[in-house]
Amino acid sequence: MSKTIPTKYQRLIMSILICLSLIVSPVSAQQQGDIGYEPTQSNLDARTWFQDAKFGLFVHWGVYSVLGKTGAEWVMNHDKMPISEYEKLPPQFNPVNFDADEWCRMVKDAGMKYITITSKHHDGFAMFDSKVSDYDIVDRTPYGKDVLKMLDEACQRHGLKLYFYHSQLDWHHHDYFPRGRTGQDYTGRPESGNWYAYLDYMDGQLRELCTNYNVSGIWFDGMWDKLDADWRLGKTYKLIHGVRSEIMIGSNHHVTPYPGEDFQMFEKGLPGKDPFSKEGHVSALPLETCETISNSWGYNKDDKNYKSSKDLIRYLVKAAGNDANFLLNVGPKPDGTIQDEFKVRLADMGAWMRTNGESIYNTRGGPVPPQSWGVTTHRGNTVYLHVLSENEKVIAVPDLGGKVLRARLLNGTQVNYMETKYGTLFEIPEMFADPNDTVIVVQIDLK
Ligand code: H79
Prior knowledge:
alpha/beta, 2 domains, 28% helix
């Protein structure tokens, strides 16, 4: 086949386009991710499923749970433990009471639809059977079993989706060099290393995770450790989407999503209101916010600072009103069980979701932006007003996008309303006010 030679005019246009892309691009080309990424239909369907699901369990589980102390999954960095010291933890990790089916039953009972679990945290220890390393649960612990595989199989049985949290930052691998903000000299690694060999290693583990498990997405974290490094994101993201295009990629780098990413997450805060990212970074991708029940992510036996069930329910509602999923974390104990304080709160949330879930699942945030009295969600011509401020007698709702046809509570009780030039006023039936969230269901005439 003969190649067509570009005309002088075409070459000029091409040069202008290249120059423009260099001016417009805020970061180096290497960092840009999968340039020209077009999600497939199955990827878009996976995003829709994700947005409809609304509620998931985050699990931070690793050999750090053996210590279960301040720092939790960060204990290695917190206590400045050399690798030689930290490597004494895996031989003590023996979660004989781990029951994947029990975890799944707890998750379903909480009204959650998916689990996101640590395949590797910053400590570099793989919680699955990796062939590109022996620093993993099968090779280094007396337990010797792949807990991710066991959980994957249970998720399949229970109709739950599984996502893996995978740390790009690694305090154990010698080729994670030059070092970033954390995991410095105390680890005892040589002051040399081959960065691209590390990325090959990471890609190797990601290929294992995507190929050997029914994984629905990869939740990256730790890129912030050296944000300006050449992470070869494009290559890594193509590798993942190349295994199965519907695998969703997200990265907790705290900056605007890069091409190739399929969802955006926020840590310990609603989208754009979290302590890490600057406002204005909220993208059009599906959103998720994650939060802990106590203070720490990984197991910390001294952390008794539990949020109440009510606070957690309200967080879920606010997330939905801000068009985001809620990923609520537990840090299991080293024996594989989950502490009662967490289980009680998950059960409470599940009970609330059984009567109020209609106003959360399969909805999107809005149409009214968050108000002083609460938030709104909607599905088709049904709008749910979530009244979060207590002792409210009447709320004023600005433009609902159409004439109000009917208003009721989820238990069927009629709600009185009046359309005024300031918006619609709704009267809260005092008798049925829910201190967690009083939900008013409004039918709108969208014509
Ligand atoms: O996995 C959980 C935590 O272990 C992890 N992300 C959640 C989901 C996490 N990593 N870091 N943090 C939580 C908070 C620590 C932030 C700091 Fe920094 C790292 C402070 C200084 C270095 C990142 C980079 C924030 C500011 C600069």
